[in-house]
Amino acid sequence: MMRFVSEPSTALKIQKMRERVQWKAPSLRDRGIDQTRFVIDDPREQNAFSFLVIGDSGSGRHPGHFPQRQIAEQMLLHKDECRFVLHTGDVVYLVGSSEFYPQNFIEPYREFLVGGETPTKIKFDQMVFNFPFLPVLGNHDYYDLTLFYGVLAQVSYPLRLLLRKKIDLDIRFHGSYQGKAFAQAFMDTLWLKDPMHLAEHLDRHYTAETSTGRCLKYEPGLFTRLPNRYYTFRYGGIDFFALDSNTFNEPIVPSSTQEDRGKLLDRRNEIEQEMQQLLQELSRLNVNQPEQSDAADDIRVKLQQLEEIQLDIDKQLNTEASVTDYEQLDWLRDRLIASLNSPDVRGRIIYFHHPPYVTEATKWYQAQTHAVRYRLRQVFDDVAKAVDIKERSIVDLVLTGHAHCFEYLRTVETGHADSNINWVICGGSGYSLRRQREEGTEIEEDDRIVAKSQLFVGRTGQGKDKQRPYSFLRIDVMDGEPVKFVLRPYVSEWSQRQWHDRALDPIVIG
Fold it and tell me: Between 326-340 and 367-386, two packed helices, what is the crossing angle to 10 degrees?
């Protein structure tokens, strides 16, 4: 079977990330350090503040344009008025490789980095941000190359150059090494510290005092590392919870019957044949001609969409080996309960990669989407039993990516504690955009509506009239209680081989 990428198991993801941060090592435990929390060192902090949100951004240059850089330039117009950037995952495509951090991350976001005036001198594992940049892991940040493409990466240079020119999927020699590149780029990888200097490092950078113990101090311009793959921080009276949804997105219901498995296998084979046909079409195009270059880009996008569907099918076929990251989910439950009981907190925002509710055409029906919805509901239901939430929601806002679009949804009465919550997908910040599903804007479960899409911004049109509206989000947090948010979506649309920048109407929440 043809594959571009492979995905490590959930158990391996958890194991590797624990090793990288020296999870619960004696030197950290003895100091009472909370490895899931940090404090932003910002003397300007106040209850009224703004921040930016992006996601699914990590692509390189396209023929004639550079979507990620275009969005970054528009974000810069808000930098002085905002306090940090949240990134909902897929920082670097296609396989989270360290080889692509220079061109797919450092170059487009150079003004957010210390030394950004000479971005080629910045090493991916030594980045320091002059403006807090707070990402979570996307699925592509965990991907690796399949053996087939790993072998192709070692062939002669002329053949490798031809392969890259035609397929152009941001692939070279290796993948992420199970998320290692992301960890080295953004996390405090304590496993790389000399044991003789680990104590000195902890005593220098883990100095913030909180109700859960000492924790890391995030110092813009000096030390800008994250303590873990999931974490929390408080700013302006708002608790932010960043999750790694890659470790709790395993399908819920196994496809155990022969009929169900047969249907999945048939679908996977159909996808395989379609991918082979697309590759043949791609080989016949001249990417040096603008129109054929656009057609080639569309084929690459379709190939990547189909491969994601294949991976989702594989998860459903192999549920007997699945693992769920209950340690992280229990952590979220306990921290939400503590936050709701704290008089110092006036609101809560969660952000992670895989959206529980979405109407983008390739994601709404996937098993991973339903799995994340189900498991997040379990957490919210447990919190609701422990805390008298009365008329308020458990969280005020949930931010995700993965679906390559901008979308704002609201749940209605779901029968669970995720009712009447605002859900925002910010996954259109640089990589290929996708369309809204034809099935409509209302999401149903068991023949009843559980969520409604209020706004969708994604790919539209065909051929020369195709429109690609890339996006980012600014969120203004108002002072006072109950908390109020103003969501301000911004769009940079590529159409007719030109950029058109615009602001969409604000969305007021609260």
Answer: 40
Q: Give burial (CB, 10 Å; 0-12/13-18/19+) of 35.
A: buried
Q: Residues with Cβ < 8 Å from 260, sequence gap 6 or more?
A: none
Give the number of domains in the chain: 2
Give 43: exposed, middle or buried? Use CB within 10 Å, 0-12, 13-18, 19+.
exposed
CATH number, domain with residue 24 = 3.60.21.10
- Top-confidence range, 63-67, 135-139, 387-391: 135-139
Nearest to 487 by CA among 410, 392, 389: 410
For residue 433, pLDDT beyond 60: yes
DSSP string, 38-88: EEE--TT--SSEEEEEE-S-----BTTB-HHHHHHHHHHTTGGG---EEE-
Q: Report the C-alpha gap between 145 and 183 in whole angstroms.
A: 18
Closest CA to 188 of 152, 153, 224: 224
Residues with Cβ within 8 Å of residue 196, at least 6 apart in sequence? none
Structural domain contains residue 321: no
Q: Is residue 282 part of a domain?
A: yes
pLDDT, tens only, 13-60: 999 999 999 999 999 999 999 999 999 999 999 999 999 999 999 998
Range(s) of the domain holding residue 274: 258-316
Q: Quick one: 48 and 152 in the same domain?
A: yes
- Tell me how far apart the alpha carbons of residues 200 and 215 are, in angstroms, rounded to a whole number: 14
CB atoms within 10 A of CB 36: 23
Indicate if the alpha-carbon torsion angle 338, 343, 344, 348 is positive or negative: positive
Tell me, what's the pLDDT at 287?
67
Same domain flag for 288 and 338: no
pLDDT digits (tens, 9 = 90+) for 178-188: 999 999 999 99
| Spatial separation of the C-alpha atoms in residues 463 and 466, rounded to whole Å | 5
Spatial contact of 361 and 435, defined as CB atoms under 8 Å apart:
yes
* Distance in angstroms (rounded) separating the CA atoms of residues 300 and 164: 12
Residues paired with 133 in a beta bridge: 85
The pLDDT value given to residue 321: 64
Q: Which two tokens stand for residue 318?
A: 């192999």
